[in-house]
Specification:
With 469 residues, the chain is α+β, with helices and mostly antiparallel strands. It has 17 helices and 7 strands.
Amino acid sequence: MMVFIVALRYSSTVVLKLEIIYMPIVKYIKKQFGFRGIMNNRDEIETHLSRIKLLMSAEKTEENQDTPEENEELRTLVGSLSPVFIARILEELSTQEQQILWHFVSDLKKDEILLEVEDSVRVDLLFEVTPQIQSTKVRVFDLFEGRLRQIPIENREVLAKTTPIWIDLVMPEDEELAWAGELFGVKLPDPRNLTDLESSARFYVEDNGEVHLHSDFLLDREDESRNVMVAFILKGGILFSIRNEELPVFRLQRLRARAKAGYVSEAKDVLLDLYAADVEYSANALEDVYSELEAVGRQVYGTNMTDEESANILSAIAEEEDLNGRIRRNVRDTRRALSFLMRGKFLSEMQYEDVREILRDIESLDGHTAFLFNKINFLMDAIVGFININQNKVIKQLTIISIIFMPLNFLAGVGGMSEYSMMTHGIPWPVSYLIFTIAMILLGWITYIILRYFGNRKLTSSPLSVRKS
C-alpha cells in the first residue's frame, strides 16, 4: 500500500512538472487554433472587437450613459460569443476596457473565460474587480470539474439548494449569518467580536464536532499594515470563514483554485491553502521590508545626515519594525493553528505532508524576522550615533567660540576700567580704543590658530589616521 501511495505521489509530481513545462505551448496552440470545439477565426474576432469597442465608447460618453439600448446591445453581443472568443477579445483590450466588458459577461461564463485568458489578464480581472466583489457579503463555492466555482447567491432559497465546500462571509449582516447558521446547522460568530476571545480559546472543538479556529491574517498596504482576525469553522465537509474585510490571501486562493483542476478536493484543503498563502504573503512582505531597509542603509552609510533627515529615517525604520513584528506574530499564530490541526488528527496523510511543508516555511521566516530585528536595531543605533555626532559638533563649535572669547572678555574688562583711561591719558581716545580693538582681534585670531593647530595635531596622531597612512 505504501509503495502504491509513493508511486501515485511521484506520478502526480511528474504530471505537474510536465504541465508546467508544456503549459505555454498548450496555451499558444489553444490561442491560435481554439481547441474545445471552436476554431478561432481572427477576422471574426477583429469584427467583434471593433463592434465591442464602439459600444463601450458609447457607454462611456455622458450623453449615452442612460441609454439602455446600448447597454442591452452590448450585453446581447457578449452573451452570443463563446468563452474562447471573449478571452481573445479581452487580451486585446486595455485594463479599463477589460473591466467594462467583464461587467457585461454572465457569471456562468466567467469561470470558463478565466481558464482561457492569459495569466496577466486573469490577475487583472480577479484583482481589479475587487470593489464590485466586496458588495457581496456571502460567497459560496463548490467543486466543478475539479475546480473551485463560485455560486451566485441572491437569497436564502438559492443558498439552500447548494452543496458547497466553502462559504466565505465578508462583513455579513446578522440576517445573513442567521441564514447560513440555520441552513447548515452551525452557529457562526459575529465578526465584530472576534478579537474578544482569550488566546487560549481560539482553537477548540465543540461537542457536535465543529472545529473552530480563530487566526490572524496579514494585511499589508502602503499606508498601513495590520493583522485581521478570521474565524474558521469546519463542519460536515464545509469550511465557513468569517471576517470583517477583504484580504489579498483570500483573493489569491480563489484565483489559484479556479485556474487549476485538482488544486483543492475538500474543505480542509481550502483551509490549508489559505494558511499556506498567508505564509507566502508574509514572505513577500518580508522582502519589501528588506528592500526598505536597504534603501535606508544607503542613506545612513552614504551621507552626513541632518537631524531632520535622521528623524525621518527613524520614523521609516519604526514602521518597518512594526511590520516585521506583525509578520512574526502572524506566522506564529499560523503555526499554532496548524499544530492544533495536527494534534487533533483532523488531516489525512497527504495533508500532514502539506502542513509539514508549511511549518518548514514558517521556520525559515522566523530566521528572517530575527535577522531583520537585528538589522533594524543596528540601523537605529547608527542613526542615533549620527545624531550624537551632530550634537557633539555643535557643542565643539560652542566650546571653541567660548575659548576664543575668554581672553577677549578679560581684555574688554580691562578696557572698561578707569585704569586704562589713566594709562592712555596722553593718547587721543579714538586712537587708543582703535589700537585696543585691533589688539583684541589679533588675540582672538591667534587663539583660534592655536586651537586649530592642536586639533589637527591630535587628529594626525590618532591610531585611525596612522593606520590609513
